[in-house]
Amino acid sequence: MLPAAAGASVDATGALHAYMRGRLADGDGTPSLALSSYRHAMEQDPASLEVARRSYFQALISGDMALALRSAVVLEKGERLPRDGTLLYICDALNRKDWAGARLSVDRMVAEGNFAFLAPIIRSWISLGEGRYAPPEINPDDRFASLARRYLDEHQAFQALALGDLTSAQPAIQRALALQTTDMANLRLLFAGQLAAQGAKADALTLLPKNEANFAQARIGILRNKSLSIEGRPFTAAQGFARLLTRLAADISTDSSTGSLGIRLVRIAGFTDPDGPASHIVAADLLTRSGYAAYGVEEASRVPAAGGYGALAQGELVEALASSGRRPEAIARARALASAPDAEPERFVRLGRLLAEEKDYAAAADAFRAAQARFPGDAVPWALLLFEGSALEQGARWTEARAVLERAAKLAPDEATVLNYLGYAQIERRQNMDAALQLLKRASALKPQDASITDSLGWAQYVTGDLDAAVPMLERAAAGAPADATINEHLGDALWAVGRRYEARYAWRAAAAVADGAAAERLAAKTKEGMKPEYAAR
Q1: Looking at residue 19, what is its pLDDT?
Q2: pTM score, two decimals?
């Protein structure tokens, strides 16, 4: 039974049912049901640490500040509050303009250590809110000083703009943009909106490239003396804190291992500055990538499509719609974005990827080719050629595909992905075998730990009759990707060829466990009957 506080009136049965319903909803990927269930469980059993823990995380994923704060209070009493809970307390204090409370929470954050490097910037924003501004000072002897400095220029610029000091803001803006952060487009729009609001229209426009559709609406707005959004006003302390967390969330969420923390940080940023478009755009991206596409749709939709940030938000909306199963709508929006004047290459890549996933390979190849047209002929990125070649190859236009892939390999002779694709595609067709094998050997040398490339080389060795080399190579590939159907089938075929038939059947069974369609039928047949020519791996 869930623990209850002494003397509390608790419906333990109702709390347990709500808690278990929330757990099941968590497992089924229905966060809205999980949220309502945990909220109900908290109402029924407000002292349960386990309910509070799950409620806290679900509240942040779902964007429910009230439940997050309630849960945080319970967790703090039980000494179980996550470190980002202190950031939530800072957010709450800033929203209430409780400067003393905010300072106490920052002191606590420093003592806890995890986010201590943010303290100089947050304290500076608090001082601005108090009306006795003190610029951020970073101790050069602090072991995290270099990390704090990555955020310093940006906030010095915003603070100077908040104080109306354009002279100090300009060099800080240039230093901040020179860092090439993961959130660069948002940052350019934020700075441009601030500069335009203070009458520096020309300076604002220089931050927004002319021939890029992502900035077109913002440029029109500035030229017509319209504010880009609420971000056109001088930043408050709360908005400065929100911007700091938004940038940190974007910076740390480069892979799935930190995605959950990134979501919590950007949600706290959204609580602190609910009208700021940048946090909604970043939240939409992180939520979609972490499997919460329905929330990604909500966040992207909160940014007006016709506003200065609309193009960026619409791009994230396309990704969220596609991930949430609303693919026709996603493709329609992607087409609209790609049809805009001065559409950036990434718009065509997004459209091409979606079309390829729908097996419309001809249209996908056209989209990837349109992306290439945005570059000078001698500066086309090899990745775009690989995308086009892949679409052509999958669309049964091999002669065209090979020419495009060979061009990509010429541009990027040390890119293992290109060499692997070109080499394996030829091995599959039993064409140009010796040259293809050499391509795969080079790819494997460049990325020896890549199981897919190791498999390609092992399969090429098998197809060319070098079984002594093929079997250990394919065994290594299977060890690196034990749940890959293609790799296990290749290994099984090679093991059968050298007489290791019990092991071959074991490999085929492993492949069959994750295969589907014709591959599953083929694997079942050769596991039962043994290898026959018609059962060879494709």
Answers
A1: 67
A2: 0.90
